Amino acid sequence: MLRQLPNILTISRIVLLPVLIGLFYVPGGAAAWAALWIYIFCAVTDFFDGYLARKYGTTSGFGTFLDPISDKIFVVSVLVALATFDRLDGIWMIPGIIILAREFLVSGLREYLGPKNIKVPVSKLAKWKTGFQMTALGFLVIGDYGNTVVPETLLIGQILLSAAAIITLITGWNYLKAGYKHI
């Protein structure tokens, strides 16, 4: 079971994504809170699938392939939904665009370097970026419905996403510099 648990967690993120996005279409606070709880579950699985696979030595080719893809599908889908439902609009769309551009750039770089057996390892700063990004997205998923618990929830999410975008620019540049010498 431990061998399969990381892959089950990765797949659960993909399976729950349509439910999460579907809840954006349901009006009212109950749907927003349900979306937040699903989002939190998915964000936690994003951490634990890789952690458990490494800790118990159960990494697999399937997991190595699927985990980064599911992460990107998840983040891109949530960002698009947030823009669609006006939680990222106007100038606040810029951090989302920066994050999306970096995701595609780093994925392309890894795809290009992979056949040459050149790895682009995840940096500590990139892990911080993910932490800021996941926290920001949680605030944005709940949006104004979270104001009963934390005032200005939407604004906090937008500011945190901006911080994540700044870190994204730095890590994206670092990945490009590391990969450029092999291009």
CA distance, first residue to last residue: 41 Å
CATH architecture: Up-down Bundle
Mind describing the biggest β-sheet? none
Query: What share of residues are in beta strands?
Result: under 5%
* DSSP helix fraction: over 70%
What radius of gyration results from the CA coordinates? 17 Å
Order of helices and strands: HHHHHH
Shape: globular
Number of helices: 6
Look up the CATH topology: Four Helix Bundle (Hemerythrin (Met), subunit A)
Summarize model confidence as the mean pLDDT: 91
Report the structural category.
Answer: mainly alpha
Query: How many structural domains?
Result: 1
What's the β-strand tally? 0
CATH class: Mainly Alpha
CATH superfamily: CDP-alcohol phosphotransferase transmembrane (TM) domain
- Can you tell me the residue ranges where pLDDT is under 50 for at least 5 consecutive residues? none
